[in-house]
Amino acid sequence: MKNIILPIDFSDTTDILVEGAVDFAKEIAGKIYLIHVAPADIGFAIGDMGFQYFPEIEKSEISEELAELNEIEKRIKAKGVACEHLLKQGIAAEIILDYAKDKKANYIVMGSHGRSGIYDVFVGSLTKDITKKSPIPVLVVPCHN
């Protein structure tokens, strides 16, 4: 069985990306390892007193994201593809590449949406970063709405 890392960000193109990854997994008899990397500063806010940390905000956000990951995993399994998930906080590219190494991944599947710069508009800054640093093939799924 081939191992596929599928980073997701819960953007409006996540469903397109998941469908592309599921189709690919079926073609190569693959297992999908979903990963979402939340920012390390998710519970911080700037107020009148400067930076403040609100653990309840962080806990709530992480709980919601875990619930979303569970739902996506269920949808993938319902389509006949093996799947498991992980949520971590930190620097996305580093965590994704470490996860790929830990799972002995054969592929990383990324979306092509981006938000800044001409190249990033078509590919995505995280996708660009992963493709530059990854020692394994990166499949880029077009996710334009």
Automatic annotation (TrEMBL):
It comes from the Bacteria. Residues 1-142 form the UspA domain. CDD domains: USP-like. Belongs to the universal stress protein A family. PANTHER family: STRESS RESPONSE PROTEIN NHAX (PTHR46268), UNIVERSAL STRESS PROTEIN UP12 (PTHR46268:SF6). This is Universal stress family protein. It comes from Cloacibacterium normanense.
